[in-house]
Structures are given as structure tokens and as C-alpha cells.
């Protein structure tokens, strides 16, 4: 595509040779609305060199600049030189690019030969995969896809919480009150019940905690067959349930190496810290003092010698560096764990590894229920699987009402219902806290997934009805209506938005942008007839419809949302 920003820089550098093109490009701004032009160059910086007021400089330069084929008009507004893009060129470059690149439009190869690990979802075994985990799952999956789209070799990791003291509790609880058959009927719910009961009873009877610690230690030492078997069994039945959700969301992981995988990789790391003189004893535990960095100490081993969450994360990072030689190692984990990530990444840095800077925590805000904070311990949870099922059911009901003859109703209801949940997760800045609400999730009005999906389906049916073919000859000069140009502008920005989303690790940029495209498209649809106009114009408009459909589809795909052709 034509890079108009570069062309602005070319124009300016001809009249101000003292500025480098790159420097100019960085100075170029986008005016707040199109009446003021597509690009603006502020002249404040030139005042010294020209010994004149910026307004005068802008006025003089605007007159001197020749916009060539790329710009229709160049004029100053106060101290700015404003550039108006030649819209015919814009239309041509956008539509030609989408036509050539199709679903690859917006992708690049900037990541070629580099590996980006995206760790996400990472639920805890034997605990519900609740609505609090959906954010990590959905944001992570989208980032994974965005990196891949930019040519990175991206790897999806699920750091399952399959280790830790809670397994001590579960084993102890199972041995007291568990019934294998009952648990296998409904694993997560039953294991959760055991966990909740154990915590309740332990409040009255302290010795239960001791028992839990014992079982966890046995597990960690790895010699107790019974403990190992129970752990493996709980892991298997839990993962089976998690996979139901991943299948619904169409998510695949390249690795499920969870916390347990790293248990035999810890001693080496602890030894190294020891050798480097980083470990201090504190009430029987081993710590790395981080006071200098204004953080509480990182706990490396406990008084009974068993290791901790932090230690496993450090061991995992070393393993990943060695095994994958990552370019970036990304962790999509709730902001509640900010300190944890700061601490262990600092420890790796203090061990002398500069790749510590490539370990990136991508935090996101908390989810609460309308009735309060989620708490596994108290059994206050909303199961993700239920949310998705409920969304699918409601969607099916809407389809039955509005479009009962639709083919593949069930399949479409799945794509739209699940898409609605994912879309609303990815609509806001990830760092924002939010309250989960059934009503909002299942609303199909306004800025929602179903609205964008519906726009895509509408475009698709126009292409069918108009017997659109990519081989059609298109006269781009016919697309001049404001509604048409508005879509084109948004399509033109799409590649930049995707790069921005990748750099800021913020899928919501894409969600917002395709919503804007859908809105612009529906305005166009409502005010410009498409199938009933004469052939030349019809072909040009259909090409615009094709481009819109293609970009919306790509955008949805990058979010992990499907785009049914009919709905
Ligand atoms: N299992 C943890 C939880 O559910 C999240 C794991 C995050 N990843 C990590 N490498 N620590 O809270």
C-alpha cells in the first residue's frame, strides 16, 4: 500500500532539507477530523532555523510544496501544514492491496525467525475453570494469533497449576471423605467440594493443615506411589474438563507443561543462586532479599525444604530460554500477580541474565461478580463452561425467533454465542477491572460481537447476490461518497492498528477498530444502493464490500472469533 505518511515526509524534506525523513515522519500528526486533512505537520520545530513564527513558516511552506499524485490539497491551518490525501489514490491502493493479499492483508513478516512464547490460561488442576480465567485465556489466545500474523513463530503455553500445597489438601481431603466414583461423575465440582470442605474444617482443626503439608511433601519427594497416583488422576480428569472449554473456544496449546514439570528443574537453579551468594536464610526459609528494589523478599524454599510458586516460575523461565531460545517470553496473568512477576524477573536479572528483560508480564484487571469478589475457597464461582453454554442457548433462541430457516442453526449459535462472550472480554482495555454481568454478555445490541459478525454476514450475502467476482474490472474513481471513503480510511488504518495491538499487547485495539468498520459499513449500506445501481458502480461498490468483509473476518480471527457467512 502507499505509505502516505512517508509521502508527507518526502514532500516536507524537499522544502526543509535540514530535517531527516524519519524525523519528519515522527513529527507528523493525525488531525482530529478529516475536514482538517489526513495528516498534519507542525512547524514549531522550524521556528529557530527559519527565524520566523510557526504560522508564517507553515503558510510559506504550504505554498511551496508540490503534493504530486498523492495529495489533492496542502494548506496551512495556523502553525500546521495540513495534507489532504488524494482519495482516488487511497481507494485504489486499499482495494488493490486487499484484493491481492486477501486474508493476509495487514500481516507482515517482521517476526521472521523469532520465537514468541505466549503463556496463557493456566488454570489450576482440580479447581474450576471459572470466569476469572477467561480473560487470560482469551487475551492470550488473541496475542498468540497477532504475533503469528506478524510472522513470529508463536508458541502457546499452558502453565497448568498442577502443583503446590493445594494438592496436599486435596489428597488429605480425598483420603478422608472422597469417593472415586462420585468424583469421576463430575470431577471439578466434586474436587471443589472437597477443597472447600477441607478449608472449612481446617479452620476448626489446625492438624488438618499439617496433614496437607505432609502429603504435599510426599508428592514433591516423588517416592510415595499413592500420592503420585492420586495427583495424576486428578490432573487427568481436570484436564479433560478444561479441554471441553478449549474446544468450544477453538484454542489449542503447544504445551501443557505445568508447574509440576519444573519440579526437577529447580535444584539446579537454587544451586546457582546459592553459588552466586544470593540466598539468605530467614526463619528457616531461603530468600532473595529485594529490599534494595523496594520489594518484599522472594521466597525460594520453605523451612521444610519444599519449593514455591516463585521458584517454579524461575526454573520455568530458564527451561524456556534453553528449550525455545525465545525472543519474548510473555505471561498473560492477572494484575493481582504483578508483584510476583516483578520479584522473580528481578531475581533472574540479579542472577546475571539479560534475557530477564524479555520476560514480560501482561496483566489484566479483575473480574468480579455482581454479588462480589470471586472466591474458589468459598465456592463462589461462575463456571466458564456454563457461561459459554448459556450464551449459545440464548443465541439459538434468538435465531429461532428471527431466522428459523437458517441452515446449520446450532453451529451458527455456537459461533455467535461464544463469539459474544469473547468479544466483550476483548472490548475494553485489558487492565480495566470489570463486573461480570449475564445481561451485558448476552445482549446483542450496540457494540457487540454479534453486531460485527452480522455485518460480516450481510456483506457476504451482498457478494453472493451481486455475483461478485475478483476478476471484475473496477473503476475506483466511482467511489467518492463520504460513506465509501470513510470505510476506506478505516481499512487503510487496519495494518497499523494490528501492529499497535501487538506492540502494546492490547487486542482491544482490534476489537474497537473492526467495530468502527462495521458501523461505517452499515452507514454505507443504508445510504448507498449497491445491487440496484448500474453495472460499473455496482462492481466498484461490491469490491468495497469484499474488502470490508475480508478485513472484518481477519480482525475477528485475530480475536479468536469465528465469522459465519450466514446468520
Ligand atoms: N495457575 C495460576 C492461577 O490460576 C496462574 C499461573 C500464571 N503463570 C505463571 N507462570 N505463574 O492463578
| Distinct bound molecules | arginine
The average pLDDT score comes to 93
Strand proportion: 5-15%
CATH-assigned homologous superfamily of the domain at 4-85: Arginyl tRNA synthetase N-terminal domain
Unreliable parts: none
Name the CATH architecture of the domain at 4-85.
Answer: 2-Layer Sandwich
CATH class of the domain at 4-85: Alpha Beta
Global structural class: alpha/beta
Give the biggest beta sheet. Answer: 4 strands, parallel
Overall shape: it is globular
Determine the fraction of residues in helical runs and give it as a percent range: 40-55%
| Total E-strand runs | 13
Q: What is the tally of helical segments?
A: 21
Under CATH, the topology of the domain at 4-85 is which? Gyrase A, domain 2
| Rg, Cα atoms, Å | 28 Å
How do the strands of the widest beta sheet line up side by side?
Answer: 5-4-9-10
Structure report:
The chain is of the alpha/beta class. The strands form 4 sheets. The chain has a 4-stranded parallel β-sheet, sandwiched between helices. A 3-stranded antiparallel β-sheet has the order 1-3-2. The relative contact order is 0.10. The two termini are 33 Å apart. The protein contains 21 helices and 13 strands. It has helices at residues 4-15, 21-27, 47-50, 54-64, 87-101, 131-149, 165-177, 180-185, 187-204, 207-221, 225-249, 266-275, 309-324, 338-350, 384-402, 409-425, 438-441, 449-465, 482-503, 508-527, 535-559, and strands at residues 39-42, 71-77, 80-85, 115-119, 153-157, 279-282, 285-288, 298-301, 328-332, 359-362, 367-369, 372-373, 434-436. The chain is globular and about 85 Å long. It has a domain at 4-85: 2-Layer Sandwich (Gyrase A, domain 2). Strand 2 and strand 3 form a beta hairpin. It binds arginine. Residues 119, 122-124, 159, 161, 313, 331, 333 line the site of arginine (ARG).
Amino acid at each position: 500500500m502507499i505509505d502516505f505518511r512517508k509521502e508527507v515526509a518526502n514532500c516536507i524534506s524537499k522544502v526543509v532539507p535540514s530535517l531527516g525523513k524519519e524525523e519528519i515522519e515522527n513529527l507528523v500528526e493525525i488531525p482530529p477530523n478529516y475536514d482538517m486533512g489526513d495528516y498534519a505537520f507542525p512547524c514549531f520545530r522550524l521556528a529557530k532555523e527559519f527565524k520566523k513564527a510557526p504560522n508564517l513558516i507553515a503558510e510559506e511552506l504550504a505554498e511551496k510544496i508540490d503534493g504530486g499524485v498523492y495529495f489533492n490539497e496542502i494548506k496551512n491551518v495556523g502553525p500546521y501544514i495540513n495534507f489532504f490525501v488524494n482519495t482516488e489514490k487511497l481507494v485504489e491502493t486499499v482495494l488493490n492491496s486487499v484484493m491481492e493479499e486477501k486474508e493476509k492483508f495487514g500481516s507482515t513478516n517482521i517476526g521472521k525467525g523469532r520465537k514468541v512464547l505466549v503463556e496463557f490460561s493456566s488454570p489450576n488442576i482440580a479447581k474450576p475453570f471459572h470466569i476469572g480465567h477467561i480473560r487470560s485465556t482469551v487475551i492470550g489466545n488473541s496475542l498468540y494469533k497477532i504475533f503469528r500474523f506478524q510472522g513470529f513463530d508463536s508458541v502457546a503455553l499452558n502453565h497448568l497449576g498442577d502443583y503446590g500445597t493445594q494438592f496436599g489438601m486435596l489428597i488429605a481431603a480425598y483420603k478422608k471423605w472422597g469417593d472415586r466414583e462420585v468424583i469421576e461423575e463430575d470431577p471439578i465440582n466434586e474436587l471443589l467440594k472437597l477443597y472447600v470442605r477441607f478449608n472449612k474444617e481446617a479452620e476448626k482443626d489446625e492438624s488438618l493443615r499439617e496433614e496437607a503439608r505432609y502429603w504435599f511433601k510426599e508428592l514433591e519427594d516423588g517416592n510415595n506411589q499413592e500420592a503420585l497416583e492420586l495427583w495424576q488422576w486428578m490432573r487427568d480428569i481436570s484436564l479433560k474438563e478444561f479441554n471441553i472449554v478449549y474446544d468450544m473456544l477453538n484454542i489449542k496449546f503447544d504445551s501443557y507443561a505445568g508447574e509440576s514439570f519444573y519440579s526437577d528443574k529447580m535444584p539446579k537453579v537454587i544451586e546457582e543462586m546459592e553459588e552466586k551468594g544470593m540466598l539468605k536464610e530467614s526463619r528457616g526459609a531461603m530468600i532473595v532479599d529485594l529490599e534494595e528494589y523496594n520489594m518484599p523478599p522472594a521466597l525460594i524454599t520453605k523451612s521444610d525444604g519444599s519449593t514455591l510458586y516463585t521458584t517454579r516460575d524461575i526454573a520455568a523461565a530458564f527451561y524456556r530460554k534453553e528449550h525455545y531460545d525465545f525472543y519474548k517470553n510473555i505471561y498473560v496473568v492477572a494484575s493481582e500477580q504483578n508483584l510476583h512477576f516483578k520479584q522473580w524477573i528481578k531475581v533472574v536479572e540479579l542472577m546475571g541474565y539479560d534475557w530477564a528483560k524479555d520476560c514480560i508480564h501482561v496483566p489484566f484487571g479483575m473480574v468480579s461478580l455482581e454479588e462480589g469478589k470471586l472466591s474458589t475457597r468459598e465456592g463462589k464461582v461462575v463456571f466458564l463452561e456454563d457461561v459459554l453454554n448459556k450464551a449459545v442457548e440464548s443465541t439459538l433462541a434468538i435465531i429461532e425467533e428471527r431466522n428459523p430457516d437458517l441452515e446449520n442453526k446450532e453451529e451458527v449459535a455456537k459461533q455467535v454465542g461464544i463469539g459474544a462472550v469473547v468479544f466483550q472480554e476483548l472490548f475494553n482495555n485489558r487492565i480495566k477491572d470489570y463486573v461480570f454481568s449475564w445481561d451485558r454478555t448476552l445482549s446483542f445490541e450496540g457494540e457487540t460481537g454479534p453486531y460485527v459478525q452480522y455485518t460480516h454476514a450481510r456483506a457476504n450475502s451482498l457478494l453472493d447476490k451481486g455475483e461478485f467476482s475478483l476478476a471484475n474490472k473496477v473503476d475506483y474513481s466511482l467511489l467518492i461518497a463520504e460513506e465509501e471513503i470513510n470505510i476506506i480510511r478505516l481499512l487503510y488504518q487496519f495494518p497499523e492498528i494490528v501492529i499497535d495491538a501487538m506492540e502494546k499487547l492490547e487486542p482491544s485495539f482490534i476489537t474497537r477498530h473492526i467495530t468502527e468498520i462495521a458501523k461505517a459499513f452499515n452507514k454505507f449500506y443504508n445510504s448507498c444502493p449497491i445491487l440496484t445501481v448500474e453495472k460499473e458502480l455496482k462492481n466498484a461498490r461490491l469490491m468495497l464490500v469484499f474488502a470490508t468483509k475480508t478485513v472484518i473476518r481477519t480482525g475477528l480471527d485475530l480475536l479468536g472469533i469465528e465469522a459465519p457467512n450466514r446468520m
